[in-house]
Amino acid sequence: MDECPRAGLAEEATAAGAPVGPQHWPLSDRPGFLARRMHQIHVSLFAERCAAFGVTPLQYSLLSVLRDLGEADQTTLAGAVALDRTTTTGALKRLAARGFVSRSTSPIDRRAQICRLTAEGTALHGAMEPAARLAHAVTIEALTPAEQDQLTKLLRRVINGHEHRRGQAIIE
What we know:
By secondary structure, the chain is mainly alpha-helical. The protein has helices at 9-15, 31-50, 57-69, 74-80, 85-97, 119-139, 145-160; strands at 71-73, 101-105, 113-117. The protein has a three-stranded antiparallel β-sheet with strand order 1-3-2. Strand 2 (101-105) and strand 3 (113-117) form a beta hairpin. Helix 2 crosses helix 6 (119-139).
């Protein structure tokens, strides 16, 4: 079957400025492919530089948000890292099992879990921050400093243009 799974797909693509039809479209011209490759490269660099800490990029993001906020419920944390609550809860449980995060029932809403960094979590975050920063820097080191800044601004702009998809706050 060669028909579109959704009526109006071609019209939607044309309205968005995407060419429709059998034109040659190399992977190197596809923003989604390029974003996925950049993510793969970054995860690999993060793993190389942060392997000794045994923390994933998602877990590091959660530690960073908790460092900045002091405490937050799991729903807030899920929104901050732009992931679903189930995935976020699993990552938080693993961090708690290692003693890096404490989780307790909210006195205001007994369904909510309030999370905080423990002293060990604060120490871990501080110890791994230079390696994590280096992984981010190496990810975009092929660019000049001005281009790195421009890339970050453009990525924010693309993300903010799609925030309705997740209901997240605008990234500044």
